[in-house]
Amino acid sequence: MSRMRNLIAAVALLLPLGAYAQTYPAKPVHLVVPYAPGGSTDLAARVLAAKLTDMWGQQVVVDNRPGGNGFIGMVAGAKAAPDGYTLTLATVGEAAISEALFDNTPYNMARDFVPVSMVADADLVLVAAKESPFNSVQDVLDGAKKQPGRLSVATPGAGTISQILLEWMSLNSGTKFQHIPYKGGGPGAAAVAGNNVPLGILSASGVTSYVKSGHVRVLAVFGTKRSSLDQSWPTLIESGVKDVTGSTWAALFAPKGTPPAIVEKINKDVVTALKSDDLIARYAGAGSLAVSSTPDELAARMKRESDSYRSIIKAANIRSD
Amino acid sequence: MNIRAPKDFWSGLFFTAVGMFFVAVASGYRLGDMHRLGPGMFPVLVGSLMALLGFFLAGRSLVMDGEPVARLHRRSVGIGLLSVVAFGIALRPLGLVPSIVILVLVSSFAGKDVRIIETIVLALVLALLSVVVFVWVVGMEVPLWPEW
Amino acid sequence: MDTLSHLAFGLGVALTWQNLAYCFAGCLLGTMVGVLPGVGPVTTVAMLLPFTFGLGPAPALIMLAGIYYGAQYGGSTTAILVNIPGESSSVVTTIDGYQMARNGQAGPALGIAAIGSFIAGCFATLVIAYFAPPLAEIALNFGPADYFSLMILGLVASVVLARGSLIKAIAMVCFGILLGLVGTDVNSGAIRFGFGRPELTDGIGFVALAMAFFGITDVLLNLEQNQNQDVFAARIGRILPSVAEFRQCMPTIGRSTVLGSILGILPGGGALLASFAAYMLEKKIAKPPCSFGSGDIRGVAAPESANNAGAQTSFIPMLTLGVPSNPTMAMMIGALMIQGITPGPGVMNERPDLFWGLIASMWVGNLMLLVLNLPLVGLWIRLLSIPYRMMFPAIFVFCCIGAYSVNSEVFDIYTVAALSGVGYILLKLDCEPAPMVLGFVLGPMLEENLRRTMMISFGDASVFVTRPISAACLVATVLVLVAMVLPTLRQKRDEVMVE
Question: Is the ipTM of this complex over 0.90?
Answer without folding.
Answer: yes
